[in-house]
Amino acid sequence: xxxxxxxxxxxLGCIQCGRCTAGCPVALRxxxxxxxxxxxxxxxxxxxxxxxxxxxxxxxxxxxxxDRCPKGVKPMELxxxxxxxxxxxxxxxxxxRDALESTFKHGNPWGRGxxxxxxxxxxxxxxxxxxxxxxxxxFYVGCTPAxxxxxxxxxxxxxxxxxxxxxxxxxxxxxxxxxxxxxxxLGEEGLFELLVEGNRELFADRGAxxxxxxxxxxxxxxKNEYGELGSDVVHYSQFLAKLLKDxxxxxxxxxxxxxxxxxxxxxxxxxxxxxEPREVIERVPGVTFIELDRxxxxxxxxxxxxxxxxxxxxxxxxxxxxxxRVRDAVALGADYLVTACPFCLMTLEDAVKTSGNExxxxxxxxxxxxxxxx
Length: 374
Hints:
3 domains; 7 strands; four-stranded parallel sheet; Rossmann fold
């Protein structure tokens, strides 16, 4: 007997208070009404997959709805479940299907060959651990920093910082494969399990004791969804905070700029990592740091997570959340809006252009701020 949405996602606790929809970053500008989705799942009156409910693809999986639910219901998991049901029926959006096929064939959702995964490091001396060798400290680059031209700059910057701090590390080179975080949130559970199995074996074979990720999405899935991995996993902002604290990394050049910080959802809301990025910023000489009004637990989502890099929002209306974020940072008088996630970096940079704020503010990654101070 098929399990109902009510049973599978434990929806009976819902009291229809509406806090999920009220906290949703895309509810005001799309037709995603999470309270309604949960109600129809609870009563069995709504569509059973994302084909019949296309607004389910608008979800950024930021976790606001789940975090705000007073009864412990997890609306985000329901939305992912609707996506999974659509994929199982062969009803995935074309862009989603292409991303999933690319991940299966090439180990990344960007449609690029595996042999090109290390092109970002062509002019750098980046160590690669070979089969049969061990690398206790592994720098996991991730798909977007490996393939996207803008995010590649962050990977290059992190390599420079690691070298400046004298860190003995290695990368997986072209053997590196997608972490699967976005694959799972797009609803492809089977492919996610294949990636988990392959990556677990790869990390064990290379003797990884500590994995430092450039993306909070990668950190989240390795840390929270791979089970017993056998390796500690940290985001690079945590690692840099440690290097600065123990004196391994020294910042001596003043950066006389006013800076504010955007909390990535998968660093903050999903993993409660708020302090370390701010500790790094505050150790940069010359910086004047100011907080956005909506920060930390209240931070706005950039709309780049949950597979949204491969999905156009259904029936958009109004201002993008990333544009609101940029406008708020400009109003603060910030020179730099700093973030620590490749998806946030890309969506916020695009929002600077679409909101007409070019020349008024610059979007940079936390690692790029640090390298200015070396």
